[in-house]
Amino acid sequence: MAEKKSFASKFIAVPGKKFSLGALDPRDDSAFDDKDKAKEQLLRDAVAIDGLQDRLFAEGKRALLVVLQGIDCSGKDGTVRAVFNPCGPLGVTVKPFGVPSEVERAHDYLWRVHKACPAKGYIGIFNRSHYEDVLVVKVEKLAAADAIERRYDEINAFEKLVANSGTRILKFMLHVSKEEQAVRLQERVDDPAKQWKFKVSDLATRAKWADYMAAYETAISRCSTEHAPWHIIPADRNWARNAAIARIVRETLEEMNPQYPLPKDWDPKTIKVV
């Protein structure tokens, strides 16, 4: 009997295999039979993640790192809210990565990333990540080409170290179309509640769309590994994006199967609080 494939396998970039983002539809929602049912399942998955996170924290032996990477307006913030809001603040960390500070620039590019990795018992969420150093840095030519070329192997070795230390790694590329990004950027311009998110430099980045997509294809092709695979998530439809990521996170935690620790030096049957 053929082994049943996991839900996550629908989205994984096969390690060692080249692919084209242009061949993947950012509006694809075929992983779900029904929009309303997918939204309902998302809520159930988010609640289940909360319970699994509690067990992970209590166990205190392993961690889960969730990497959210995508071009502007791909939905990184929205994913964090939809998937992880039900989780209590105990045991979950969210780390956004912006332009490196002066202190961070005085170290190697992975220094700020390594110290932000989740401790045992935690779910750590990266909003952007170390991949900025082979995406933005590459497209904007902020480092020498030979230095960037070395970074793919360095990142793979770094992620292997993190994985070998007891941390499961889930990497999600939120694949949004150029047309949908235009709609979302215009919403930021027009909506006073979203204008704080807009920067004029976003338009300069958008003008280099093809270069950024090529950089993503290279990074994903060269850094999707067995210990840290990339998942390409269609992100034009927010509900499908959120539902897919929630399902994969839940399945991963269920596979990890963290357990509440048993009492070490006392027997609950012998203690009665009066």
Short structural description:
By secondary structure, this protein is of the alpha/beta class.
CATH top level label: Alpha Beta
Major sheet size, sense and barrel closure:
5 strands, parallel
- The number of distinct helices, counting runs of at least 4 residues, comes to 10
The CATH homologous superfamily is named P-loop containing nucleotide triphosphate hydrolases
Spatial extent as radius of gyration: 20 Å
Kindly describe this structure.
By secondary structure, this protein is α/β, with parallel strands linked by helices. It has helices at residues 35-59, 76-84, 102-105, 111-114, 136-139, 145-164, 178-190, 201-206, 209-223, 238-256, and strands at residues 63-69, 92-96, 123-127, 167-175, 230-234. The chain has a 5-stranded parallel β-sheet, with helices on both faces. It is globular and about 70 Å long. The relative contact order is 0.22.
Lay out the secondary structure.
Elements: H1 35-59, E1 63-69, H2 76-84, E2 92-96, H3 102-105, H4 111-114, E3 123-127, H5 136-139, H6 145-164, E4 167-175, H7 178-190, H8 201-206, H9 209-223, E5 230-234, H10 238-256
Parallel strand pairs: 1-3, 1-4, 2-3, 4-5
Question: Any descriptors?
Answer:
single chain; 274 residues; alpha/beta; Rossmann fold; 5-stranded parallel beta sheet; 5 strands
